[in-house]
């Protein structure tokens, strides 16, 4: 820890004295909420993606990759929670700071990449169902996923080599942040805005506008289904703007105007609120792409029924083993010939199965 502190002093020392109170009030609440809701939701989303892959649907590849990226971010939240509760003082290893920072920031662009893949896949499926079929295969989805992960891993390596820890005026070790921002961050922020937000947003808008145009002209689609599609498309675009828009706009503003500590202090709270908004993407993704369809509900009902069946089987086996090992059963077994024991066990299983079937019928009611 002493080496870590000394390296922080040698690498960078900032004179900015910024009030971090927002990190002790709002940030822990958001991180806990996203972790508690996002972890089970994304685990179920991963199962949903697996069902798509098993059905030979390329959409499952994109959903699984999107969910894995969200889970990586969720697993980093306990470290960030400890960081903000320590008044923005990183007490872990320096490399762990860089890894958690990469998971925090690069998750945004991995998610954006796969959100674009899902929108393009839906656009081709609706507008050109037969023309571009070769791009809508499992193999094509795997290749695209490798490209997205490879690009972001290269970016992550760049940040891992260039990002360093710093110390504020209160001798707190600041992780993955600089006030004011460094010179090399300006071009990176412009790249993030144009290639990581603006271009994907127009791609998303183009894809979903094309889908809505085809759905509007379709005479075979029911009115209720059209309304559901419109709600899903509009919700996707709005959530994309709310989660990623403010953060990227403020990135550009910081790159243009943040030259001193005075501006950094003024923009600190609103910038970190925008960064917290990106966390809600981990909760919104499963809701939009998995839990909004009726087929998902049916799949989870089947999963629930299979789990209940397994529990009932285990309960039945426990009852049978307990009854066979009681002293009364042992005394009775001594008076019964050995060749009649299997017949008695079969009767016992029949009785328990009748009980279970009656319980299942009541549950259905």
Automatic annotation (TrEMBL):
Keywords for the protein's UniProt record, in alphabetical order: Cell membrane, Disulfide bond, G-protein coupled receptor, Glycoprotein, Membrane, Receptor, Transducer, Transmembrane, Transmembrane helix
Chief localization: membrane
Residue stretches making up the G-protein coupled receptors family 1 profile domain: 41-289
GO biological-process terms attached to the record: cellular response to pH
Record membrane topology: Multi-pass membrane protein
Transmembrane feature ranges: 30-50, 62-81, 108-128, 140-160, 193-215, 227-250
InterPro entries linked to this entry: GPCR_Rhodpsn, GPCR_Rhodpsn_7TM, OGR1_rcpt
GO molecular function: G protein-coupled receptor activity
GO cellular component, one term: plasma membrane
Keyword rRNA-binding: no
Location within or outside the cell: Cell membrane
Keyword field contains Translocase: no
Membership in a protein family: Belongs to the G-protein coupled receptor 1 family.
Name the record gives this protein: G protein-coupled receptor 68
The species this protein was found in: Chelydra serpentina (Snapping turtle)
Gene that produces this protein: GPR68
């Amino acid at each position: 820890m002493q080496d870590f502190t000394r390296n922080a002093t040698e690498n960078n020392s900032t004179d900015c004295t910024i009030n971090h109170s927002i990190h002790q009030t709002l940030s822990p609440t958001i991180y806990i909420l996203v972790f508690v809701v996002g972890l089970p939701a994304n685990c179920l989303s991963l199962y949903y993606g697996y069902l798509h892959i098993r059905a030979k649907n390329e959409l499952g590849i994109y959903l699984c990759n999107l969910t894995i990226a969200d889970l990586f971010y969720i697993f980093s939240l306990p470290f960030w929670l400890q960081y903000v509760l320590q008044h923005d003082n990183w007490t872990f290893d320096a490399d762990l700071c860089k890894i958690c920072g990469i998971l925090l920031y690069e998750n945004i662009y991995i998610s954006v990449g796969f959100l674009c893949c899902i929108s393009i896949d839906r656009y081709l499926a609706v507008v050109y169902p037969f023309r571009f079929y070769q791009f809508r295969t499992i193999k094509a989805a795997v290749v695209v996923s490798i490209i997205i992960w490879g690009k972001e891993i290269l970016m992550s390596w760049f940040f891992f080599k260039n990002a360093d820890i710093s110390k504020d005026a209160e001798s707190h070790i600041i992780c993955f942040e600089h006030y004011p921002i460094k010179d090399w961050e300006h071009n990176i922020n412009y790249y993030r805005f144009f290639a990581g937000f603006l271009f994907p947003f127009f791609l998303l808008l183009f894809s979903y506008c094309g889908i809505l145009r085809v759905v509007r002209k379709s005479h075979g689609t029911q009115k209720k289904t059209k309304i559901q599609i419109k709600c899903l498309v509009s919700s996707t675009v709005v959530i994309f703007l709310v989660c990623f828009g403010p953060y990227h706009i403020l990135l550009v503003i910081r790159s243009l105007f943040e030259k001193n500590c005075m501006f950094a202090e003024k923009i600190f709270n609103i910038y970190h609120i925008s960064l917290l908004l990106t966390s809600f993407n981990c909760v919104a993704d499963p809701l939009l792409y998995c839990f909004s369809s009726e087929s998902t509900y049916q799949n989870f009902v089947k999963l629930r029924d299979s789990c209940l069946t397994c529990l009932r089987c285990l309960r039945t086996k426990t009852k049978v083993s307990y009854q066979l090992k009681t002293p009364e059963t042992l005394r009775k077994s001594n008076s019964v010939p050995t060749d009649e024991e299997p017949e008695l066990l079969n009767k016992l299983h029949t009785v328990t199965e009748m009980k279970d079937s009656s319980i299942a019928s009541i549950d259905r009611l």
